[in-house]
Amino acid sequence: MKPKAFWLYAFFALACTIVVAGIALLVMHVAASETSEHAAYREKVRVYDAWYAERKLDPRQVRFDEVLAGRMPAESIEDASLRKLAADLRMLAVGESDVSARAKTLSAMFITSDAGLGIRAWITCKDENGNLKLGACVMRPIVATIGNPERLATLFGADEAAKRAALPEVPEAFRERPAWDGGAKRRWSLIERARGLPKLWLGLSLWSAVSCVFAAGFFLLGYAKHRAEQRDWQKETFYANPFGSIPHFLLGWIVYLAMLPGVLLMQASRIVGSDAQPMLNKLKHKVAGRTFASEHERILAQLKNLETRAAGRPDSDATIKLIRGAIKKVSDTQNLEELDKLRKVAEDIKLHYEVQEDLRETLA
């Protein structure tokens, strides 16, 4: 087998192996079942999100709003800068009699901060994709109430009913969003079973599976290319039949040994297929409704028609001799399998005659 043809078959087989492996992984992924632990976690998250959605609350701003409403002390907020912002805002709400204190608080929040604007760190001017958008600057979700004057007034006000409507009491179970513990999210049943096998058997199984897929692509492409080349009698033979040829270079033998289980399987398939060919042909003829009599009559008519055409041409003695020899053999044939072989002979003679006719017309 020539290296060029060998590597064509090999690269095609490699591509087939990669595709099959990808499909196998996809099937295993689809077939994998979710672990009960992860299903329970998802249910907790669903309940958590549903609770806030029903009340039109953002869980990120609840702790901040509770401090503004006076329900929780500022110390309940872990982030130091957020805690200071909440405390300053709360002082504005309760410090109506202390104008000096309120002025200092406003100055600290908006003027004398190190950033030049005390709430700059809590403003975002980016869209959902993270792109800068100066015309859409808003307060970050955790302090969104600052950008909502109506809500801010409600939380600062003395109307407890309005406060409860704007900020319902949050049960302890909904204080923190459920967190995943990092365990397995899906159960890969097939992989789990495979891991239970001895390493030697697992390795041999994987080697056999991969080599069989590779060899199937290699041999089937090679055989198809070889047969296609055989049908074109004017073309120089290049693609060797992999069922009857071996590589004649070292690297090719290394590849052959690497896919040895697959090579043996393909050769065994060829042997079984050859032994079963007569039975398969009979079955094919039966399904197609072909009979010996119909095929015999059809091929004889084809050959006699060809004989008549050749008799009207000069220099056709050799062709007529071939045709008459084929007619005699067809007449003597007694079974459909032999008739199939002669049908191919008749087709070859017809092709030979038509080539001669084309040649004569071209020279004329």
Q: Would you report the number of β strands?
A: 4
Q: Measured on Cα atoms, how large is the radius of gyration?
A: 42 Å
Largest sheet features: 2 strands, antiparallel
Structural class: mainly alpha
| Range of helix content | 55-70%
- Widest sheet, order of strands: 1-4
Number of domains: 3
Cα distance, first to last residue? 43 Å
Tell me the overall shape. Answer: elongated
Average pLDDT? 78
Number of DSSP helical runs: 14
Poorly predicted tracts of residues: none
Please provide the ordered H/E string of secondary-structure elements: HEHHHHEEHHEHHHHHHH
Q: Strand percentage, roughly?
A: under 5%
Could you walk me through the main structural features you see in this protein, from its secondary elements to its overall organization?
The chain is mostly helical and 364 residues long. It has three domains: 3-32 and 189-278, no CATH class; 37-174, no CATH class; 290-363. The chain is 66% helix and 2% strand. The protein has 14 helices and four strands. It has helices spanning 3-31, 36-54, 62-68, 80-94, 99-110, 149-156, 160-166, 189-195, 199-231, 250-258, 260-288, 292-311, 317-332, 336-363; strands at residues 33-34, 123-124, 138-139, 186-187. Strands 1-4 form a two-stranded antiparallel ribbon. Helix 3 (62-68) packs parallel to helix 4 (80-94), helix 9 packs across helix 11 and helix 12 (292-311) packs parallel to helix 14. The longest helix has 33 residues, at 199-231. The chain is elongated. The chain starts with a helix and ends with a helix.
SSE blueprint:
Layout: H1 3-31, E1 33-34, H2 36-54, H3 62-68, H4 80-94, H5 99-110, E2 123-124, E3 138-139, H6 149-156, H7 160-166, E4 186-187, H8 189-195, H9 199-231, H10 250-258, H11 260-288, H12 292-311, H13 317-332, H14 336-363
Antiparallel strand pairs: 1-4, 2-3
